[in-house]
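Q: What structure does this chain adopt?
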Amino acid sequence: MSEELRTVVGERRRLVALAYRMLGTMAEAEDAVQETYTRWYRLSEEERDAVANVPGWLTRVASNVCLDVLKSARLRREQYVGPWLPEPLPAAARGLAGATGSADPADRITLDESVSTALLVVLDAMTPAERVAFVLHDVFEVPFPDVAEVVGRSPAAVRQLATSARRRVQAAREGAAPTAEHAAVVRAFLAACEGGELGALMEVLAPTVELRSDGGGVVRAARNPIVGASKVARFLLGVIEKQATWRLGLTETGDGLAVAFLDGERVAGVVNVRVEDARVRDVWIVLNPEKLTRWA
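A:
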């Protein structure tokens, strides 16, 4: 294997990591990386020899591909059945990182957090340019001039995009529970679900809790968000009662401790929550089997 080919192939894991954070699903991320490699091998030998920084070229092209996908996301989401949620990754896949870390951790997010449902939901509400700028600069430490080439803005404008995105991320993180508190609340949430007592489950939920479930039109799920402790508790207990073969278990995701719906050995669903003030503030349930392939 040539040195050039070794470099190109060696970048795949990092590119998938980058694309996943931009697009929110592994299938789309892998498609974006495949398109990136297709464009590389379409270059002539002379054109490839002229690329001084192969990883930088691949990063720029993959980011451009992701930006194009994000720009068309609105139409795709309108065609999606029910709420769209990012694909949750099990602990074993959280190493899909590729970022290098930072000397200033106060300004950056941890690698685990950068694949959390909580963060990806925030990223999904950003403009495509904001999301790309944030992921490239704040997670993967790409310099602003290089990010500017991707999004077609000046470095100063890209800096503003990243700053705006960072503010939104930091606002969403305010009030988020420490890891130990999050885990304790998730365990209480699981126990209340297993106990089947409406009142006990409502005690774990914030009064204004919101639940979103993503079945993708493949399996049954709530077509609209459910808001309020009573409605959310009744919905959860109803799902558990109807699925007689399911059992509940604890698992780890980028959000920390989470709950899995298990049908035998198969993971039928992943439930991530956001904990605030010692109660569950958001519930995100992914039931779409196309987003659970990493849990096999």
